[in-house]
Every structure is written in C-alpha cells, then in structure tokens.
Write a structure and sequence with these properties.
The chain has helices at 19-22, 24-31, 37-52, 60-65, 67-74, 90-103, 107-125, 131-140, 144-154, 159-162, 176-188, 218-234, 245-260, 297-300, 304-311, 328-340, 371-392, 405-412, 438-452, 472-481, 510-530, 543-553, 571-597; strands spanning 167-171, 194-197, 209-211, 214-215, 264-268, 286-289, 320-323, 347-348, 421-425, 428-433, 459-463, 486-489, 537-539, 563-568. By secondary structure, it is α/β, with parallel strands linked by helices. The protein folds into three domains: 8-104, no CATH class; 111-411, Mur-like, catalytic domain (UDP-N-acetylmuramoyl-L-alanine:D-glutamate ligase); 421-597, Protein-Tyrosine Phosphatase, Chain A (Alpha-Beta Complex), CATH 3.90.190.20. The longest helix has 27 residues, at 571-597. The two termini are 43 Å apart.
Length: 598
C-alpha cells in the first residue's frame, strides 16, 4: 500500500485537529460486526465516501488554534477538495482511508486520553492558591526561587541537568508572551527543536508547555504530570509540602524540555522576573525585556523604577540583554542591573519597520504586518539571532538589521492564539485579545478600530479584568474606539459549571468575580452618563448567558444579525468565550439531530 500512487480523490487536502470526527463513520464501520472482510470493506468505503462528500465539522477552538485551517476556510477551501478520475479507484480510496486511520486516534482512545488529561488537571487544580494564600505570598515571594529549586530536585531533576539546555528568557509588562512566540517561531523555522513555556493558557493547561510550537500532547502531559506529582507527593515532609500551581507547572515544563532534548527553550516570565519561578536557571545567555508599565504593584513596586528592577532580575553574568524599553529611568535601572552582573552594554533594538525597507521584504509590506509583529518583531529577531550566533556560529552583529526569507517566514507564520486574533464564526467576526494593561488595551483598541471602521455590523464589547486596580482608564480607551451597541461584562466563566477542568480557577471566589463584573459595568455606565450617551451595559454570570443575550438582541437571519464582537481584558475571558460558543454550537447541533430523529 505504501508504494501505490493514490488518486487525489482519495486523499484529503486538509487534516485539521478535529478531523477525527470527519472519519468517525469510518472508525465506527471498522468496529462493526460485519460477517466477512468484503462486507467490512464495502461498509467502510461507503461510510468514508459519505463523510468525504460532506464538509467536516469544525469547532471554534479548532479555528483559534489551527491557523492553517482558518486560512483554508477564509480561502473557501474548508471542504476536502476532489477531482474526478476516469477509472474505478475504490481500492485506492480504501487504502487511503486505511492510511488515514493510522494517523488518527480512534474515538475511544481519544476519549480516554481526554478523560485522563482532565483527571490530571483536576488534581493539579488542588495546588491553586486561594485569596488568603496569595496575600501571604506577597510577603514571602523572595523565597519563590529557593522553593522552586527544592521541589525541582525533589521531583528527580537536578538543576545542573536543567542548565545543560539552552535558554532565552523574556520579561516585561506588555508583549513578553508575543515576543516569546515570535522568537520560538523564528528558531523553529531555522530547523531547531524548540521548547516554549508561557502563561496563562486559554483553553487547556497543556498550552503552557509547547514543543515545536504545538501544545504538549495531552497523553504526554498526563504521563509527565503523574510522574512528577506522585514523586513530590510521596516525598512530602508535611501535609502542605507541595509546590503551588504555577511552581508545579514550571517544574513540569523543565522535565518535558529535558526529556524532549530540545535545542533551545524560550521561557516567558510569569510575574516580575527577579523572584519568578522561571528565574532559577543561572546560565541564560540571551535575555529580552519588553516594554514596561505599572502592574502587580502589590508584588513588584509602585514606581516604574521598581518595576524595571524586578524585570531586569533575569539578567545573569554573561547574558546578552536586548530591550525595546523606552523610558529613560527604566533603561538606567536595567543598565545598572546589567553592570551588577559584569555586563557593560545593553542593546536597545531598532524599530521593526527598519527590517522591511529592503528588496528581500518587498513582497511583505510593513503596513500589512500584524500589530504583534510590528511591536515585538525586532526584539524577537535579535533574541533569535543572538542564540544562533552563540550556539550555531551564525554571523550576525547585535542589533544588525537583517531580514531574509527564513526569518520572514518565522515572523509571518508565527501563531499566538488570543492575541490580536480575528476569527469568523456563526455570523460573528470575533476579535480576541487578552490585553489587560492600559498600553496593551490601547494597541487592541487601535487594531479593532482599523478592522471595523468601515463595517456596518453592530459592535459588541465583552470585557473583564482581574484585580482591584482602577479600571476606568481602560474603559475610556475602549469607549473611544467606536460606539459599541452593547457592552457585556462577565467573569472568566464559560458556563454555570466549568466546561473544562483547565478553566477552574480557585484563586478568586465566584461571588467576588461576579461582584467585580458588576462593578465594571457600573463604571461603564458612569462614563456613559458623564458623556450623555445611552447606558448599554449588562453584567452576566457567565459567557453562555452573555452570548445568548447578544443573539436575542441581534438574531442571525439571512439578511441581518452579523456582528463585530471584541473580547478583551483577560486571556481567561477569551478562553471562556471560546468554550461557551462551542458549547452553544454543540447544544444546537444536538437539538437538530434529535429533531431529525423524531
């Protein structure tokens, strides 16, 4: 079978993550109790052809996390392409189905993998800290690195073993995750095996640990989880002697990177830098610091200088330090911390636009780049090239403006879900951005305005933000974006009960989350009254309620109901929105199937 030339009618052009559902009928036929092999072949072939003739079923999550699938649908290629042939290709078609079955996990196995993963995440959630514990941690945060090393080595992994890998470490207030994603993509497009550790996740916890740009396989995540968890549990010295959630997942990430033998791992700082759990590696050669602003002031300090001191805490002796920080007072702090580590020079990277003035980039105008690349592309290129110089002997001078096709591919083909991302779904243009600082909200608002300024569709805002800081400056920016026809405020909850274990958050009670959403809605209405505009806000208990209310107000018909929906303020809110819309869609399909069976 391996050597047979298969007709194109037999082979799908597109294999999205959800394609197992497209061939579910084939799997079912394969498991049926057909009396003889010929009957089984005919049944399987018939079922495959039936599935082949209809478009596959996609979820919103598939579109968010699979850019190739989204591009194919946008190009009108969301169904499997075929072409006619003038011969009987039944045998070849069957062999193609056989081949695909080897690539796809059976329904039962897939369900088992998901169930095991959900069980692991449910156990992991017990390590989340409640509000009182988080307040106490402010005082003891200086011990975070010490305890991370303690639990890392207790889990069976020596720090010296971790430090045998190569690392790029990135801190900052705005854009550190995007910079890491771009850097990882740049290195992967150079043929390297990459690891990438980031936070938070959108839908599932395994998104935090990536190999070659993809979230760690759920089966592998589950395997590594129990190996590390059980060892730590068995070696406890007292009942509460377990690492907290973020510390545990960080340790798990190091286990995975060592096991996978990655060429380089890109680490995104969680909070701050100096005392962050990721900051245990002592020999990081390449360091990036993105733009800075006031954030987590209870943990990091109340001035920009204090914030800069924390962020620059990831600098190590011998590190090459790159940044696009602009505030003089912050740069001075970063330079001093570099000098404290024996480093005389930090590199302030050139603007990304400078890379797009040569013939090599003529086919990719700077104006057409995403906001993520415009803001963070230069820093990512310098971080990636610095590693390639150090580890692979590439010729490159720090801050040299260089762009070739490989680097360009690494930038434009990078994918970072939930960051300035537009997805079309069921009559809605969904604009997802987890922006949660004033500066990132300004970027988000500009991006949204650019996309909808000529659109006749009603504009819907869905917003939430954790924390107790003043939210009104962010709301003012959003109100200037466009006249929203409806403003929805909801906790980061997909439904009355969490749809996925990865969306269970114990750090803040549901009651306080609901209170926070109502308070934000009240602030929005206050701004409306001050500006003599209609008060159009509404607070909801969860995202399913929000989307149901939106569709009740703007029902989708053949001629109306198309919407532009901005979901922003929190990455967890983005995840809750995706899960809610998929749950609504699944419920509608179930109802339709029940009606058809009557």
């Amino acid at each position: 079978m391996a050597n047979r030339q298969l007709c194109r009618v037999c082979v799908p052009r597109l294999l999205p993550a959800s394609f197992s559902s497209t061939l579910s009928a084939v799997s079912s036929s394969r498991r049926s109790t057909v009396s003889n092999r010929q009957s089984m072949r005919e049944a399987r072939l018939r079922a495959a052809r039936e599935q082949h003739s209809s478009p596959p079923s996609y979820t919103l999550a598939d579109l968010v996390f699979n850019p190739d699938l989204q591009r194919s649908l946008s190009d009108g290629k969301g169904t499997i392409e075929t072409k006619k042939c003038d011969k009987d290709c039944s045998e070849a078609f069957e062999e193609a189905v056989e081949q695909l079955n080897y690539l796809l996990i059976s329904d039962e196995t897939n369900k088992a993998v998901n169930a095991a993963f959900e069980a692991a995440i449910a156990q992991l959630n017990y390590l989340q800290s409640n509000e009182d514990t988080i307040r106490d941690s402010v005082i003891s945060r200086r011990d975070a690195k010490k305890f991370t090393v303690k639990y890392l080595e207790r889990s069976g992994l020596a720090l010296e073993t971790v430090e045998k890998l190569n690392y790029i470490h990135v801190s900052g207030t705005k854009g550190k995750g995007s910079t890491c994603a771009l850097t990882e993509s740049l290195l992967r497009h150079q043929g390297l095996k990459t690891g990438f550790y980031s936070s938070p996740h959108i839908l599932a916890t395994n998104e935090r640990i990536r190999i070659n740009g993809q979230p760690l396989d759920k089966a592998k995540f589950t395997e590594h989880f129990w190996k590390v968890y059980n060892r730590l549990w068995e070696l406890r010295e007292h009942d509460h002697d377990m690492p907290a959630y973020f510390k545990f997942v960080t340790i798990l990430g190091f286990h995975v990177f060592v096991e996978e033998k990655v060429d380089v791992a890109v680490l995104e700082v969680g909070i701050g830098g100096e005392s962050d759990c990721t900051n245990i590696v002592r020999n990081v050669g390449t360091v990036g610091i993105t733009s800075l602003a006031l954030e987590h002031t209870d943990l990091l300090g109340t001035t920009l200088e204090e914030i800069a001191w924390q962020k620059a805490g990831i600098i190590k002796p011998g590190s090459h330090v790159f940044t696009h920080v602009t505030q003089p007072e912050c740069l001075e702090v970063i330079r001093q911390r570099a000098k404290d580590n024996g480093i005389d020079t930090i590199f302030e990277v050139p603007p990304t636009e400078d890379y797009f003035k040569s013939e090599a980039t003529a086919a990719q105008p700077y104006e057409d780049l995403s906001a993520v690349i415009k803001l963070n592309g230069s820093l990512a290129v310098q971080l990636a090239m610095d590693y390639l110089v150090r580890a692979k002997g590439r010729k490159h001078i720090a801050n040299e403006v260089l762009m070739d096709q490989q680097l360009l591919d690494g930038l434009v083909k990078s994918h970072w879900p939930g960051r300035c991302q537009k997805v079309e779904w069921r009559g809605m243009r969904l604009f997802f951005d987890g922006a949660h600082t004033l500066e990132s909200i300004e970027v988000c608002a500009e991006w949204f305005h650019k996309n909808v300024k000529d659109s006749p569709n009603p504009k819907i805002l869905i917003f939430n933000r954790k924390g107790q800081s003043d939210i009104r400056p962010l709301l003012k920016v959003l109100r200037r974006t466009c006249p929203f026809d409806m403003a929805c405020f909801s906790p980061n909850l997909s439904a009355a009960k969490p749809i996925y274990a990865s969306q269970v958050f114990l750090s803040v009670s549901e009651e306080r989350q609901l209170g926070r959403s109502q308070a934000i809605a009240n602030d929005w209405d206050d701004l409306c009254r001050n500006e003599n505009t209609p008060c159009n806000s509404q607070a909801f208990a969860h995202m399913v309620d929000a989307f149901v209310a939106i569709r009740q107000k703007f029902p989708l018909t053949e001629n109306s109901g198309h919407l532009d929906v901005l979901v922003t303020g929190s990455f967890h809110l983005v995840g809750a929105a995706i899960a809610a819309l998929d749950a609504i869609d699944q419920s509608q399909r179930n109802n339709e199937e029940e009606e058809e069976q009557k």
